[in-house]
Amino acid sequence: MGLWRKISIPFVGLVLAVYLYSAWEDFKPEMLRGKRVIITGASSGIGEQMAYHLAQMGAHILVTARTEAKLQKVVTRCLELGAASAQYVSGSMEEEAFATHLVEEAEGMLGGLDMLILNHIGNSYFNYFDGDVEHMQQLLRINFLSYIAMTVSALPRLKDSRGSIVVVSSMAGKIGFPFTAPYSATKFALDGFFSFLRQELILQSIDVSITLCILGFVDTESAVTAVADVVLVTPALKEECALEIIKGGALRQREVYYKYAATRIPLLIRDWAPEFLDYLIRRSYNVENLKKN
Ligand SMILES: NC(=O)c1ccc[n+]([C@@H]2O[C@H](COP(=O)([O-])OP(=O)(O)OC[C@H]3O[C@@H](n4cnc5c(N)ncnc54)[C@H](OP(=O)(O)O)[C@@H]3O)[C@@H](O)[C@H]2O)c1
Q: By the 8 A CB rule, do 84 and 95 touch?
């Protein structure tokens, strides 16, 4: 029995590792051909890059954000890249009615829904917590409550299509990083809500996948400008990041880690030696360069 255990446990581990690895590698761009996808926060950054990847894969795309002029350019580029169709709806996710009705409007425009990519974030500051509770509330509305409102509207349609919800989060939604208190709070909240929802969907045998994306530092203009000279880490590429998110959603992965080692290893340390991780994080900041208010 002892020998059996000694052999079987590593064997099962190996089979599981090969299975997970091969599932990861199984992605094919054709998986997205003809799929009807909403991407929020798609006028710039990672969301914009996701739109371009999906366009090249032949998806029907609906992009949304506040700035109409930028969305028009994204739509034009998506059509050039081969999107089956590309449209936009502009508006602010701070308005509950906009978040709630966007999915209904999108359904009419796309003729259904296969994938909902929740990616937008409101502007926040990168500095010591300033005690501004109103800003916290505003950010919760944009970064958290609108995600829930859209999910509630989309679920009946996604149940029909056995679709996917992709939630773009951050290492700051898993680990306490300094200078991002309001933003981090909204990202931790997303983990809580969508982890519970995933469990309940599985318990009810509802075939809608939820993929939570844990991203490290990525080279979008807003992120690089916000942390310039303070965070001493080289950002990863937004184009590659966008592709990894789409792959994870298409493969119905539970979580996406990008970049893998840069996010997975700190998360392992978090569970075993949180004080040590906190110390390493503090060491990776150049606090003297924080903008003075
Ligand atoms: N970049 C990073 O280092 C990094 C790291 C970890 C996680 N992430 C996550 O990745 C996602 C994308 O980040 P990003 O760096 O690509 O951000 P970004 O370039 O700043 O894009 C944010 C998007 O959200 C839209 N937006 C802002 N306020 C809005 C509002 N009130 N209503 C509707 N849309 C609004 C913006 O467009 P408009 O201004 O036109 O509305 C824009 O399209 C976010 O969820 C972020 O938390 C990024």
A: no
Residue 230 Cα to ligand 1 middle (Å): 20
Angle at 292 between CA 288 and CA 293, to 5 degrees: 155
Do 202 and 214 form a contact (C-beta atoms < 8 A)?
Answer: no
In a domain, 67, yes or no: yes
pLDDT in tens, 97-144: 999 999 999 989 999 999 999 999 999 999 999 999 999 999 999 999
- Burial bucket for residue 157 (CB in 10 Å: 0-12, 13-18, 19+): buried
Residue nearest to atom 25 of ligand 1 (CA): 41
Verify whether ligand 1 is closer than 6 Å to residue 120 (CB atom): yes
Which residue's alpha carbon is at the smallest distance from atom 29 of ligand 1? 122
Tell me the CA–centroid distance for residue 121 and ligand 1, in Å.
Answer: 4
Ligand 1 within 6 A of 142 CB? yes
220 ligand 1 Cβ < 6 A: yes
Provide the whole-model pTM.
0.93
Q: Is residue 192 part of a domain?
A: yes
Domain with 196, as residue range(s), is 33-289
What domain count does the chain have? 1
Residue 139 Cβ < 6 Å to ligand 1 = no
Residue 45 sits in a domain whose CATH number is 3.40.50.720
